[in-house]
Each structure stands twice: as C-alpha cells, then as structure tokens.
Prior knowledge:
Blueprint: H1 3-6, E1 14-15, E2 18-19, H2 25-41, H3 45-59, E3 65-67, H4 69-75, E4 79-84, H5 94-107, E5 112-117, H6 121-133, E6 136-142, H7 143-148, H8 150-158, E7 162-166, H9 173-184, E8 191-193, H10 204-212, H11 214-227, E9 233-237, H12 242-248, E10 258-266, H13 277-280, E11 282-286, E12 289-293, H14 318-325, E13 329-335, H15 336-350, H16 356-369, E14 377-382, H17 390-396
Parallel strand pairs: 4-14, 5-6, 5-8, 6-7, 9-10, 9-14, 10-13
Antiparallel strand pairs: 1-2, 3-4, 11-12
Helix pairs in contact: 3-5, 5-6, 5-10, 6-8, 10-12, 11-12, 15-16
Amino acid sequence: MAMQFLEMPDKDGFFGEYGGQIIPPQLKAIMDDINMAYDQVSQTKAFKDELQALYSDYVGRPSPIYFARRLTEQQGGARIFLKREDLNHTGAHKINHCLGEALLAKHMGKTKVLAETGAGQHGVALATACALVGIDCEIHMGEIDIAKEHPNVTKMKILGCKLIPVTRGTRTLKDAVDSAFDEYLKDPVNFFYAIGSVVGPHPFPKMVRDFQSIVGIEAREQFLAKEGKLPDYVIACVGGGSNAIGLFTAFLSDDDVKMVGVEPAGLGLDTADHAATLTLGEKGAIHGFKCYNLQDKEGNPLPVYSIASGLDYPGVGPQHCYLKDIERVSYEVIDDQECLNAFMTLSRLEGIIPALESAHAVAYAMKLAKTLPADQTILINLSGRGDKDADFVAEKLSL
Length: 399
C-alpha cells in the first residue's frame, strides 16, 4: 500500500488537514487512553485470533461477491457485482466494527457501551456485540428514526440494550449523536462511546476504518480469484462513511481502480432537504473533529435529510475529506426517487432487498453501467439489507 495512505492518520489523528481531537483537555486524556489501548491490544495475537474467529464463526465472513446478472442485462454495459455485506449476522457491515469496539471496551474494563444510531443497524450490531461479550449497552436514537425503523428498534430491545428516544432538534441522527455524547461525558472513565462510523475525535476514525477494512481485503482477493483482475470501479454509499472506507482501503494504491462514494441528494441539492456533505459542505468542526460539513453562516451544523436514516449526518469521515481533496475518490449524489427505484429494481430483478442506504450506491452504479463497455466491471458494497426499510417503502409506494 502506498505510504501516503498507510501512514494515515498521523500521531495526532489527522488525515491531511482533517480529523484530530477538537475536545476538552479532560476528554483528550480519555481519548488518548483509548488510542493507546487500541494500538496495544489490536496488535496482540489473542485479540486478532478472537476477532477473526468471531468474523468467521459468528458473523459468517467472508461475505460473498455476487454477479448481478439480471441487473447487468437490464442496464446494459458494464457488469455489476455486489459485495454481500447484507448477508452478515445482523444484516449489515456494522457488526464488523461493533465486535471490535465491544471487545476493546471489555478489555479496558468499561462498565457500559454507549452509541447513537440512525437506521438502527449500528444499534442492532452493537447490542448484539455487547450481548455476546457481556457488557451493558445504551443506544440513543431519534424519535423520527424510531418510528421509521421499528423492526430494528424491536431487535435492540430483545437483545437487552437500553434504548433512549431523542426528542431534541430534528429528532434524527445528528441529535442522537449529541444525546449519546452528553451521556458519555457523565462518566467517560467507565463508559465507552462506540461511535458508529469513521467520524468523531481520534482514534475513532482510525479504529472503525481498521475494523471495516476486512470488507475491502476480502473483496480484492475474491474479485481477483473470480475475474482474474481487479474491478474497474468500486462504489459505496457515504453518510459518515464506514462501509465505503472499509471497501476503498484495500484498493487505494490500485491506480487503475476508480472509486465512487455516493451521497444522498434527498429531495434535491437545490433544496435544504439533503445530506450531500462532501458535495456542498464547507470545512469546519463537528463532534470533536475537522471535516467537510453542512453548516450555517455561524458555522453551526445544518439540519440534514435523507430517505435513508443512516445517511442523514451533516459531517463525514476525515479520511473521505482527504480522499476528495487529492481526487482519489469521486463523490457523487443520488436523490430519494433514484434510491427508491434502485431499491425496487434490485429486489425484483435479483431477489435482493437492499437497505435504502445501500440502494444509493446501487442507483449510481445502474446509471454508470450504461455508460461503460461490457468488458468493464463495477463492484458495489451492498452494505446492508432492507428488512428494516421494507414496511416504510411499501407504505411510501402504496404497495
């Protein structure tokens, strides 16, 4: 891997000018302790072996790569492949880093793991991991998302986590982050905040990326074995950006592999109802780190929106910001209607119901495939399944 990617972040948690720790001094000491523990524990054979055993025997890794033949035939042009993270235990990529974070919290002697969730996939995965390792779990979730993602709410309660409805602000993901962080600050020595994406203060963008990199490592090896070459394009949806960075990391030094991160255009970039952070955001700070974010004239985070609850975040992972600036990754947008169309198309052509988040990546790949010759290949990270979204979509489309 090229050194410019291998050495990131630096010792202070920066990817270029993004990331870092924009936090009070007392919290910095806690974060530095987490970083030190992570750097030490994650390199031990015992930790690696335990996590690998859980990935294979508990999660069901490696997740397969599937050639979407009928979808390819309908679009014409490039062949479309799916990295099936939707087949993981709990139904998404989130379990990859949740197991790592729960194991680390247990090792550090923490008494409770806290987190936010939007679509509920991170909440379910973390509640699952905490049940497995035997540590208390508390999930903060916006009231709007609770109503929208009811199946995941039920699962979290069954798994034994304490669910905190968030009634402040927009009652969605950004406010759930604020609420969970407020609770964490009450006792950061004994609590562990398991951030749900490659965001937040250092070391979380690094930790979550490392745990999610299993996706790209597998995909690269599988695609070479299946096709005898690397994919021409790799595509993933981007909210905070964990599933995308998980796929991209293994391909960063492969100059011939083009990468596309797909953001939610919501009701349109000409409206206030979107979450296209990298497309329209400005440099600033949010939730303890520097990144592109959608902000008002005073620099405060704007309310954001996406039909996919897991993508409506006003910031984005610092490594994505760096990859945008150096033009290694192209960041594009898909609106709600295109997302819904892709959701239904994949369901009815391939018998695979994707998460609304993942359907953004599918939608962009469908558009791209038509513009490419048949000898080109596209690999999509199908980051989650759509069980959680099925009732919502059925109601919205009057099915």
